[in-house]
Amino acid sequence: MRAMVVVLVLAAAGAAAATTKKKECNAGDKAALLAIKKALGDPYHFASWTPDNLCCEWYDVTCDDTTDRVVGLSVFQDANLTGTIPDAVAGLTHLRTLTWHHLPQISGPIPPAIAKLNRLSLLIISWTAVSGPVPSFLGGLKSLTLLDLSFNSLTGAIPPSLAALPFLSGIDISRNRLTGPLPPALFSKLNTTQQGGAYLRLSRNNLTGGIPAEYGGVAFEVMDLSRNALSFDMTGLRLQEGVSSLDLSHNMLYGGVPAQVAGLSSLQDFNVSYNHLCGELPAGAARFDQYSFFHNKCLCGPPLPTPCN
Ligand SMILES: *[C@@H]1O[C@H](CO)[C@@H](O)[C@H](O)[C@H]1NC(C)=O
Ligand SMILES: *[C@@H]1O[C@H](CO)[C@@H](O)[C@H](O)[C@H]1NC(C)=O
Ligand SMILES: *[C@@H]1O[C@H](CO)[C@@H](O)[C@H](O)[C@H]1NC(C)=O
Ligand SMILES: *[C@@H]1O[C@H](CO)[C@@H](O)[C@H](O)[C@H]1NC(C)=O
């Protein structure tokens, strides 16, 4: 997951290099940027954001090549930046990418102002002190393809409204304090021909309940739900071919490991260790190592050293 975040940030930086031209941005966008700077207390981070520099050249800012609109704002890696994500971001109406990453002193909630950014495709708020709920208004950002809210202090349940997003194919809200169940219809509108498989990373929260039966109809590529408080009979779990990584370790799963799941030929990483599973492992399990299955109640058979009686 860390690798994914780094890749995204690098991609954002690369995009900035590719599209930033030496020109002045749209006047409304410029006013919004200056309001953001002011709301954060005119910090050193935005030292380049002055009338002496063309605003498409300002640090963290990306303009569109053909229009003068600001399409990307990526604020990252500054332990000195304090305050909350300013409402003034709503003034950047053409934004496609918004990143607040590795800002340990940025706190407060995800502001409702973000709901106005209806062109937003990529929303990354990660490694910050941002708290409060994962707002249900994110379900109104119809262009969203990727939502990364990992490594924050978010609480409450995952809003079912996210299921309505037609282009969303990746959700990472790992390492927060989420509670409640997984919403059933997540990724139900995903067009895999266009967007590839879905990935869902929610490790290290306090999610409860089971994996909704509807997920059996979703083309998942990665599902990481490790270190939660999930409690369900795994025997009934069914997943589609195409899943390459499934980590359910450190939960309270019971029942047995289904042959359908262990037998998925796409599955490369599989981990159900540290649960309460029991019974004989299916034949497909033998291609993984014993550490994929250890620390359960009474699993037996290869690759575990415990023979079944
Ligand atoms: C953060 O503040 C410290 C102390 O004022 C300073 O030395 C450092 O350069 C600042 N870092 C950034 C990224 O502005
Ligand atoms: C999960 O809940 C338990 C019990 O309420 C609590 O001790 C723990 O800190 C919580 N973990 C997270 C990641 O929120
Ligand atoms: C999915 O996307 C492909 C490629 O863009 C398109 O041809 C197809 O009609 C789409 N399917 C649905 C159900 O929208
Ligand atoms: C599965 O997860 C456990 C617990 O985090 C870890 O110790 C183990 O190495 C993992 N197994 C594999 C095969 O990655």
From TrEMBL:
Entry keywords, A to Z: Leucine-rich repeat, Membrane, Repeat, Signal
Superkingdom, taxonomy of origin: Eukaryota
Family to which this protein belongs: Belongs to the polygalacturonase-inhibiting protein family.
Localization per Swiss-Prot or TrEMBL: Cell envelope; Membrane
Occurrences of domain Leucine-rich repeat-containing N-terminal plant-type (ranges): 27-64
Signal peptide residues on this chain, from the entry's feature table: 1-18
Any Gene Ontology CC annotation: membrane
Record bears the keyword Membrane: yes
Protein name: Leucine-rich repeat-containing N-terminal plant-type domain-containing protein
UniProt KW Lipoprotein keyword: no
Gene3D superfamilies: Ribonuclease Inhibitor (3.80.10.10)
Entry-linked SUPFAM superfamilies: L domain-like
